[in-house]
Amino acid sequence: METRDAELDYYIIYGPEPAQILATYTQLTGRMPLAPKWALGYHQCRWSYESEDVVRELAREFRDRAIPCDVIHLDIDYMRGYRVFTWSPKRFPDPAKLIADLKAAGFKVVTIVDPGVKYEPEADYEIFDRGVENDYFVRTADGKLFHGYVWPDKAVFPDFMRPDVRDWWGELHKSLTDMGVAGIWNDMNEPAIAERPFGDGGEHIWFPLDAPQGPDDDRTTHAETHNLYGLMMAKACAEGLQKVRSGDRSFVLTRSGFAGVQRYSSVWMGDNQSLWDHLEMSLPMLCNMGLSGVAFVGCDIGGFAGNATAELFARWMQVGMLYPLMRGHSAMSTAQHEPWVFGDRTEQICREYINLRYQLLPYIYTLFWEAAIAGTPILRPLLYHFPRDRTTYQLYDQVLLGPSLMAAPVYRPGVEHRAVYLPEGTWYDWWTGECYHGPTHILAHAPLERMPLYARGGGIIAIAPVRQFVGEEPLESLKMRIWPGTGEWTLYEDDGHSFEHEKGVWATTNYKVYFEGEKVIVEIAAREGQFLIYEREVTVEVVGVGEQRFTDDATVLRLTF
User: Fold this and answer.
1) pLDDT tens-digit map of 463-483
2) Is the separation of the CB atoms in 111 and 47 below 8 Å?
3) Phi, psi angle pair for 44, to nearest 5°
4) Of the listed 101, 271, 389, 397, which one is catalytic?
5) Bridge partners of 113?
6) Which of 77, 120, 159, 187 is catalytic?
7) 3-state secondary structure of 433
8) pTM strictly above 0.85
9) Catalytic status, residue 500
10) What is the pLDDT of residues 53-92, one digit of tens each?
11) Coil, strand or helix at 213
């Protein structure tokens, strides 16, 4: 390891298992807040959906085709000449009405915000004028206003190391949230800067390393703070949204961060390409992020740059169903990459796996809760649960979604079979119910319509009815899918959107499964917490054995199969 500055601090964390190390690490760096439940649904994005009419048509397509979707992202072209915190009067003449109409159809809107503020003196651009007036922008060591080139051409950059600048920047988001925007996507915040206008072949540059940054009582230089720029922008955004959207949880996404970024933002892995290698690489990248304390992570489904084939897109959507952040995204120079553009067969595969994502949301939301309270990763490498099994140490192409569901995706063209390693214990094929005993290798049949998926013996997974968006209808029925074995799992629930859970308005229900002779016993504990759940029908399915239904009234129950 090396540093450009004089100091480098080390922290040594010991633990017998990854879970304990990660718990200690996130005690040090912080844990993510509980995301709004809608942010766990499917996100659709492109650079760019360039006008209000295009966005409306996109939303209609999702609903007409019965493909669930919760979030539409707007990239840089919603702005007036790439000026941050503005709207294009021609492309988006009435953003408040557009967002209200989308909300009525079950969509949330997330807008992009970059750190570069267009250098525009005497043009009545309030963001620039106020920033200069209050000396909020980064200056060089000799006191000159630093500038570089990004989307709005010549631009200046806030010094997010200063608390007063972060407060100012956070409050600026009110111009977006007043229109109904529910989340912010922070991009270009490494920061990405060129030394001449984009398209002119300029070199990538940084702030000068001797540029002063930070408040007067804690002044340092960019050499020390460079890696913190994206983190501090995300902090400014998250804290600002908490003020201007008081009462509602917001979604924040960032391209850049540092240790502890999970306290403020989810993260995606940047501009990937429509390549099979990039699909394959996404799994170890996201697992490593989870092992670094950043649980809410994703990669652009289908690839950002280049044109995906129908086969690649179908396989990527299957893998994307597992990503904590499930977002499809593509660049303007590419062909369209929405789920329906690749033909009927691919569309049906996308629909099936997005449907499965929505069915699994009670399980996934509980994993998010575990990440929020204990720093636990959502997407996990096998070594996380099997640290004494050396076979798992370099096994990067199989992943666990929580403790009970394992996937072995296909990431090569033309492949319909693949080797799968099943660690110690009993495993069940998700699709067929076939039982296997590990540790062992098997050859899985994986036609294009099927991603190999396995449930762990003793696994307990809550499954909801398919919805077109989160909160479309009350959760009046729930299925607990349980695989024979010995296991325990706690279902977490709250209203999914407010901060009332921080005041104790949540509910947990503990489930246990075990053998008693030849019988399978399922024990359901009394519900805990203050969140009110109206009576609903719960179906307990012990896979391969049978199912029973009961009215959930929050009391203790013991079922025998």
Assistant:
1) 999 999 999 999 999 999 999
2) no
3) -120, 130
4) 271
5) 186
6) 187
7) coil
8) yes
9) no
10) 999 999 999 999 999 999 999 999 999 999 999 999 999 9
11) strand
